[in-house]
Amino acid sequence: MRKLVSILMVLSVVVMAGCQCMQSKPCAKAEAAAPAPKPAPAQEASAYYTAVQQYNNDCCGVLKIEKALPKVVTLNAPFEYTIKASNLTDRTLHSVIITEHLPKNFKYISSTPEGKLADQILTWQLDSMGPNEAKTMIVKGQATGEGWLMTCADATYIVPACAKTQVVQPALELVKSAPAEVSICDPITLTFTITNKGTGEAKNIQITDTLPAGLTTMEGASQITFKVDSLAAGKSASQTVKVKAAKTGTFENRALAAADGNLKAESNITRTKVTQPILTIDKTTGREWEYGGRRVEYTITVANKGDGVAKNTVVTDTVPAGVGQIQISGGGTQAGNVITWNVGDLAPGASKQFTVSYVPSSLGKLSDTASAKAVCAQDVSKSASIEIRGIPALLLEVIDVSDPIEVGQNETYVITVTNQGTATATNLKVTCTLEDSMQFVSAGGATQPASPAGQKVVFAPLASLNAKATATWKVTVKALKEGDVRFGVVLNADQLERDVQETESTHFYK
Q1: pTM of the model
Q2: N- to C-terminal Cα distance for the chain?
Q3: Rounded distance between C-alpha atoms, residue 45 and residue 48, angstroms
Q4: Mean pLDDT in the chain?
Q5: Which residues, including other chains, have CB under 8 Å from residue 197's CB and lie 6 or more apart?
Q6: How far apart are CA 348 and CA 455, in angstroms?
Q7: What is the 3-state secondary structure (H, E, C) of 462-479?
């Protein structure tokens, strides 16, 4: 509602904008004459702001204008007067305009605050006046003619009926987190956090994550879906879901959120690398065969050929029975015939090498197996074999029983053959040679002479002589003449490439 007040003042005037307020009429009665409004439809009290403005101001008024002028001024002498505007209510007045109508016999000089002058009409645009606020304008001018000088002021204003409602706009933000790398044996933990970054409540929020090929939930589903009924402004809600991978590789995707009011949000893209350790093991020896009694050494190499860490890697080696003097490298420990190395974590591309050696106690083929295992890796094993060969090592010894010996007496020579090797010697042949100063008397032992003839004694072959066994032969001769004589023996066998020769010296005397 807009009120217009016209005021004529000569000396000092007090006016109520809207109506003149009578002292005998109480302000509390001002609304009594107004008819009761029809009841509005019932509404939720908490859902609306209400505004009521009575425009019937017959009693107390709204805007008061007070003007004060000097009683007497001198012609053509500058003077000042004031105009004071007061808001009599506890509400804000809008678009307040104070207009001063200046007479023709008044010359305007200035005003504070500065007003706008047009054809002797001086105007102040106050825009608004707060509850019980007052503003004062000072006008400076001079009279240009004798007689009465009369100025008139009026004012206009608006008392609005205002109500307000809150305008809100919820806004969704979806953040998804996932580990950068996991083993194929471990679940992938996905965390979804939905936040309302707006100014109002978000309702019926639906989060959907369509998993890439190769990933499923623990129950085997290819899509994750969950709902948040409502989310107040500034609040967040989180959900954690575990998924599993069916293969190795890098998996990436994003989740989506939607809510009432066509609210939508996309999450950040998550990337998870799924890895798997792949163990290999190799076991080698430098030879395909070895002689019995010699040390045999194996080299064991375990490697991780996969793209994931092989955690808690353990290498074992099972040595065959009947070996001794076992030696282990790399901190391995032995329990019975099993040797264990606790390698720990083996990075992708890394390898470890160990050695184990022992002395076989028997001949033949020996097999030895090494194995490796780690968390989330397939167990692997490798066997290696070596042939343990025997070799006969024949020792020929010849001694005379009596030395020196008198001519005409008999001397006995003892021939001993010992197999110091690891294999049986076969077809052993012993041949004895007598010098001219000797005469054959007799012979015997492991085998009998095949045909004593002249100065040679040839024994029948000995079919075999086991390792560590001994065979003995004896030859008796008669001393024919004095001198330093020699009794010679030659040994041969199938396993010998060259003859073994031995000579025993004896002193014959008269």
Answers
A1: 0.57
A2: 174
A3: 6
A4: 87
A5: 171, 172, 173, 234
A6: 79
A7: EEEECCCCEEEEEEEEEE
